[in-house]
Records
---
Amino acid sequence: MTWEGPKPISRVVEGLSRLPGIGPKTAQRLTYYLLRASREQVGELADALRDLKDNVKLCSTCFNISDQDPCHICTNPRRDQSTICVVEEPLDLVAIERTARFGGVYHVLHGAISPMDGIGPDELRIRPLISRLGPGTKVQEVILATNPNLEGDATAMYITKLVEPLGIKITRLARGLPIGGDLEYADEITLGNAFAGRS
Amino acid sequence: MTWEGPKPISRVVEGLSRLPGIGPKTAQRLTYYLLRASREQVGELADALRDLKDNVKLCSTCFNISDQDPCHICTNPRRDQSTICVVEEPLDLVAIERTARFGGVYHVLHGAISPMDGIGPDELRIRPLISRLGPGTKVQEVILATNPNLEGDATAMYITKLVEPLGIKITRLARGLPIGGDLEYADEITLGNAFAGRS
């Protein structure tokens, strides 16, 4: 055991170094920064952390994280309730909201099918999605915005099989070259898909 | 303004992105990690942050940060009170403690002389250091462990001028090649110093 500083300091170092991507050195640097920061700044961060666990819940309709249930996307009268965009994680939803190109509502699966990690369809919020598409539904299109990788594709395929019999339109996000990218640096699969999907 | 998620989330994202080296993307990733982390883990971090500001003070002898005054290095009867190691920052002290090669006590300056940044000797804890070396002192050696750069050298020089008349031994940390380093990759100044200081 090396000396890590007084207890109040080592507690913060420990707490921070448990965060992903933050090693003990970075945790120490951040802690010593906080020691010099204003009492207000540190107090505000501590309060925000407390609040995070106390006041964040899942929307019971779309399973997005929210401070109200149903969330303010599901209850927004200007959002098109007939189009559901299905994403793996809340952060994917945030990324799509940033584009300001989607005016429908969401469904957050909280993961993707991954037999290697022991995650099957029942671990995800797929069943409630199907319920939203049941008799009397207003939904006309389901956009599958799972990640463009093995797990995302498997999940999309699984959902497609369940949704198809309901006669609801299913689409997937386009695949191709990222804007601003350089053809020279595109991986062969992206480039191949871009060729196949040329328009 | 893009949508950053519900208020409790954006508060944590904001708080984290004010930390050095943590951009908005990383702050967001950490926040969503914390959302999934256990209530205990997040609560512990929040408490530790509060505690950091409430229970950490400066030792009135050596000015190291501590939860008690005088600190547990200054009050440790097994530490050699006749040798003071002068460092710029509390983190430097932690680094030296890790080596387990120093059994004396410390003096933390909280910075280095840097006219460019408007930091003169009076902004540092140099005066209290000189007081520790006054009449009746037990101190026999002052080790200047300021950083091996312009500011550190200027600070060491300044302190040397003040301490020399008191007849107390002054030393500086050795300079040379870092252990485990490769001669090929050593910068010319380090290599030059290593030559000059060869033994």
---
Amino acid sequence: MIVDNRQKHDNPIRERLYEIIFEADTPGGKMFDVALLIAIVVSVIVVMLETTNNFGARYHDLLLAIEWILTIFFTVEYLLRLYCVLRPWKYATSFFGIVDLLAILPTYLSIFLAGSQSLLVIRVLRLIRVFRIFKLANYMRQGRIIMLAMRRSAPKIAVFILFVTLMVVIIGSIMYLVEGGVNEQFDSIPRSIYWAIVTLTTVGYGDISPVTDFGQFLAALVMMLGYSVIAVPTGIVTVEFSKGPKAASSGDQSHVNRACHSCGKEGHEYDANFCKFCGAHL
Amino acid sequence: MIVDNRQKHDNPIRERLYEIIFEADTPGGKMFDVALLIAIVVSVIVVMLETTNNFGARYHDLLLAIEWILTIFFTVEYLLRLYCVLRPWKYATSFFGIVDLLAILPTYLSIFLAGSQSLLVIRVLRLIRVFRIFKLANYMRQGRIIMLAMRRSAPKIAVFILFVTLMVVIIGSIMYLVEGGVNEQFDSIPRSIYWAIVTLTTVGYGDISPVTDFGQFLAALVMMLGYSVIAVPTGIVTVEFSKGPKAASSGDQSHVNRACHSCGKEGHEYDANFCKFCGAHL
Amino acid sequence: MIVDNRQKHDNPIRERLYEIIFEADTPGGKMFDVALLIAIVVSVIVVMLETTNNFGARYHDLLLAIEWILTIFFTVEYLLRLYCVLRPWKYATSFFGIVDLLAILPTYLSIFLAGSQSLLVIRVLRLIRVFRIFKLANYMRQGRIIMLAMRRSAPKIAVFILFVTLMVVIIGSIMYLVEGGVNEQFDSIPRSIYWAIVTLTTVGYGDISPVTDFGQFLAALVMMLGYSVIAVPTGIVTVEFSKGPKAASSGDQSHVNRACHSCGKEGHEYDANFCKFCGAHL
Amino acid sequence: MIVDNRQKHDNPIRERLYEIIFEADTPGGKMFDVALLIAIVVSVIVVMLETTNNFGARYHDLLLAIEWILTIFFTVEYLLRLYCVLRPWKYATSFFGIVDLLAILPTYLSIFLAGSQSLLVIRVLRLIRVFRIFKLANYMRQGRIIMLAMRRSAPKIAVFILFVTLMVVIIGSIMYLVEGGVNEQFDSIPRSIYWAIVTLTTVGYGDISPVTDFGQFLAALVMMLGYSVIAVPTGIVTVEFSKGPKAASSGDQSHVNRACHSCGKEGHEYDANFCKFCGAHL
């Protein structure tokens, strides 16, 4: 595998950088990933603290400094990623490539546009890639089983969501007719539909609630309906889980962290010989 | 099939209209369905916007104009449906026939009776028929599996709802006795029953909540009860789902969009030779 | 069966009364049960309306009159039940015998003690017996399947409830320490435990909610915990449901309404020859 | 077994004490456990009542007296446990040893530090050990089945919680951007994340809720998401439950209450000959 890489990369520095930044198997790669993990978590916490009254106002300068240092670190990392990947454009347009870019842009944007720093929380998405450093093959397999069950449930869940959407439109409109005149909380159909969703999903804020006798009677019916309807997605997902992971859990787990040398994407099947995104030999 | 229709229809214009309006297999039929889909969605959004303060007041005349144009379009469509179906009365009294009529009446009613436009949201039900244009055989089968599981769960769910109803009547009355005098929110047994439903279904608006120590103790018991009881419908539906779709998923899917030429109803079994609603040859 | 009864009852009037009041197979018995059903429902609605401001104040005399008429009807019925049953004491101390008595006492009590009428809602429990008139063998079987699954889940649910109880005591106490001084809503440990139950069961009234940063952080943890914990009773009940009803659904359903002639109790197994409560021959 | 113990203990008083305090099979041991159970429950109720306005103020001296008496009783018991166990240090550092110590410390602490009594509720954890006196082998087995299913679900639940955490961070930040300026309830990202958790878990206090149209639209999407996502832990746990307890339910139940004579720990397998914590012969 390593030999393979050496053959492709004519430049040993790019080759070494690739190993450190994209892979987690070498000591250098692992150390880099740990540093990245800490930097991301610190960065997200800093963004959060900036918005609070207690910390944000008092330590404003300190937090801003940390934010800029980390942003420059992430920028350098992003440029190095572009440099050491064989096909930079493929990486730049991949999911993680876009996330990596979006994770640094808001800080630069904030020079011109105040308040855009909050967008930096998108950095948490970068954590997904960093989790590989833990070599938690078991956890990754579990995550894949969950994803698989959810993907298999998707068509049924989609039909169910459509059905619920039609239902809340009709329920919301009826409640608007019933409560609209009396209760100023139900001041439009969209707001009544919002109420219907809040009620049917059993969230129940109470910011909007019926006050008339008939409205409360209808609301009680909607709740009883929601009580029965909540069982449907649970039933769907449970059955998909019980079907078992099959393909997902079998096979060789050793190359689960493999990243393509051309486009830098991960997630290749265990028996894949070629990158399924760009076609390069793995 | 087409030959069959030609034989039945002596009038080629009616025959052609039938193909466009009721079927989705020809290019004309597909285009008509897409237009209908857009018209319905636009119309429902217009009805919603009319009730909001922002748009409803400012663009009142524009929204009213769109509503009338679409209503006239739907009226013409309804009359054409009546014209091209072999047995108009059968269609007019079918589920979709009634929905089609109810979807145009409120606008005319609004001339005499202000506020009745809100009833127009019933138009969303028309979307169910229009979904066939997407030829999403898989999604329709999924929807049928869900319906099947829910229909098979129905007797158990009905018994469960009855059981819950008896429970909330008794819980509500006890809470009225406990909180009634102290807490003016529990001012009658029906309102206390409403509270019991809000609590047992875990919606929990908070518009009515116990204030006495004993009342809060009882409420806590009710919640623990609801916690265990919510498992019952989920268990019922999950087991029905796990039994599998069987009959529903097998069979030929190609004629799933077939509509009877006599009464215009859909939903015929795959092996049906005659309309199950009016007996006409399919 | 009828011959059997005739042999036991030396008095043909008692025999005939028994058929009408306790059984639902003869025309007279069915008519009596329908009348009883209506009387119970009317009576419960009257009790509810009495507590409302709109109806209760305006039609007070009318509602009081209906209540007294129905109470006298139920009293006569109770005395006749005692008269026509072979072993009155067995009936009077059975579940339904006690419910029948409790369903008439509050009206008489209200002469001395105002407000005790609310207790009359216990009459809804009488509906359970009356449901047999619908001959809904299928629904009764479904109800029995649900009861069976719940009874089989009971030990696990009991352990789970105990576990949840220990959990809410500890969570409530911690929140009292955290929020107690700042937030007057958390003014005692019992009230904090009440909050913990409201949160863990996802009811979430909002009458008590944390205001400090640390309190909200802890509350978020509790919610995530509740999110995972709510799965447990559902999993328990679902597995019990999936085990199937077995014994409950098999067997002869024809005598499901049989009531013992000695003690008036129902619910005998299909192959029972003797009353399982008093040992009399069925 | 008893012979075994006699051999190990050279002192018959320590031997007798061990039987009474640690075991529940002899009449003395059972009586001691019942006394302990009552003392713990009374003590926890006293701690709770002390914090309430009604009782805490009025009966302050009485409650304080009971608390001190019970604390001295628990202290003596703790010292006796240390005395009669063969390896006191092993017991003192075991889970129950630490709980036993933590259950008495807060009262002594309260001399110097007012308010620390609330920590005494940790005493409820002691109840777990006392439950053995009920000899509820069936309930203990059920509890073990639940624990087993939860432990087997743990990796999947952990991945799921991680996924939900990433989700609420992003949702909370978006809502902060949308509602932040208009709605002072969304005054920081951490508070918006708190709102996202309250909403996604369907708790829905209503202390923080969106007021803008777009904010309510996003909130509705989050609720629909939460509606589908709540199915995942349920599906995971249900499948684990349906796999059956296997090892947990088989085997000999008679020694389920066995406690090691060296370290005092319980929970040994049925076929264990040696303590799995300290290696002593059972």
